Amino acid sequence: MNDELPIEVEIRDGVGYVWNFKDVLRLRTEYRILGSFLGCGALYPRDEAGIPLLLNSQEIQVLKEEKILRLIEVGVLSQVPGSSIVQAAVRHRESNYKKQIQIFKVERKGETNPCSRR
After folding, report:
1. Is 59 in contact with 43 (CB distance < 8 Å)?
2. Geometric angle at alpha carbon 54, from 52 and 59, rounded to 5°
3. CB 31, CB 6: distance < 8 Å
4. pLDDT at position 1, please?
5. Backbone φ, ψ for residue 104 (5° rounding)
6. Beta strands 69-73 and 7-12: pairing type?
7. pTM for the model
């Protein structure tokens, strides 16, 4: 079963982040490790917290001692990204922005239609 696999914790500047929601649930239910959510929910960003889950040094130490997690060190970029990577990132950001606008329009239309029938 996948629950037996170690939980991957990304270490960046001495801080641990858990990006897999199943791992977050496992930490909270099986090991009673709460951590702190840093992200926001996709649908209601102002109302709900989301991944990544931030683990403090004490939580990481306990999990390391119990051999529950696998640490993944993330280094800083050693080189400036090439122009093709920068262009791909810009295209990706623009594409996501356009998708968000479409989703917002649909949601907004659903919110305003009931009001206009009065």
Report:
1. no
2. 140
3. no
4. 41
5. -65, -40
6. parallel
7. 0.59
Q: Which residues pair with 12 in a beta bridge?
A: 15
Residue 69 CA to residue 111 CA, distance in Å, equals: 44
Q: Supply the pLDDT for residue 23.
A: 92
Tell which phi-psi region holds residue 80, choosing left (phi > 0), alpha (psi between -120 and 50) or beta. beta
Could you tell me the two tokens for 49? 């917290």
Alpha helices in 15-74 (DSSP H): 21-30, 57-65
Check: CB of residue 7 under 8 Å from CB of residue 23: yes
- For domain 2-73, say whether CATH 3.40.1170 is its number: yes
pLDDT tens for the chain, 118 residues: list them. Answer: 445 788 999 988 778 999 998 999 999 999 999 898 887 766 666 666 778 999 998 999 999 898 889 888 876 666 778 889 889 999 999 998 888 888 888 888 777 766 555 5
Contacts of 72 (CB under 8 A, 6+ apart): 8, 9, 10, 11
Tokens of 28: 């909270």
